[in-house]
Design brief:
139 residues; globular
């Protein structure tokens, strides 16, 4: 199965349990079946997760330059969102490596500070996502 190369089935289960109900109601079927065993929901969630995973892995900060320089505020807005998302994911990876003790240096700040920064960045991303939805901006 192609998904196993990207993430484990255990990770998929955790992501689906954490996000599945909201996902089913908003992004996939816009229905309220509430059944986490629904195979149609699981398949659509897996498809969406593949797309999100590939998109997140492909984009780097340098890829946002053209959007950032655009005269169109919607493109600049999207650049701001992508830049924040990239930085969020890198910080999240850093925190995991720090907890696991596999960094090749000793961070000067406590992990709690990095976690607080991650939380605030996540809040900011959610604000940007809400604005994008309200203002009709494609992210």
């Amino acid at each position: 199965m192609k998904n196993k190369e990207k993430y484990s089935e255990e990770l998929f289960e955790l992501l689906f349990l954490a996000n599945g109900c909201e996902f089913m109601q908003t992004k996939v079927l816009k229905h309220n079946c509430g059944n986490l065993e629904c195979m149609e929901c699981r398949a659509k969630f897996k498809e969406w997760l593949d797309e999100e995973y590939m998109e997140a892995k492909k984009m780097e900060l340098k890829d946002t330059i053209k959007l950032m320089e655009s005269d169109d505020y919607k493109k600049r807005f999207a650049a701001e969102y992508y830049q924040t998302k990239i930085r969020y994911e890198k910080l999240e990876e850093f925190i995991v490596k720090n907890i696991a003790g596999v960094l090749d240096f000793e961070p000067k700040s406590p992990n709690s500070l990095y976690k607080e920064q991650l939380k605030l960045m996540g809040d900011y991303l959610r604000c940007l996502e809400a604005r994008a939805l309200l203002e009709g901006i494609e992210l």
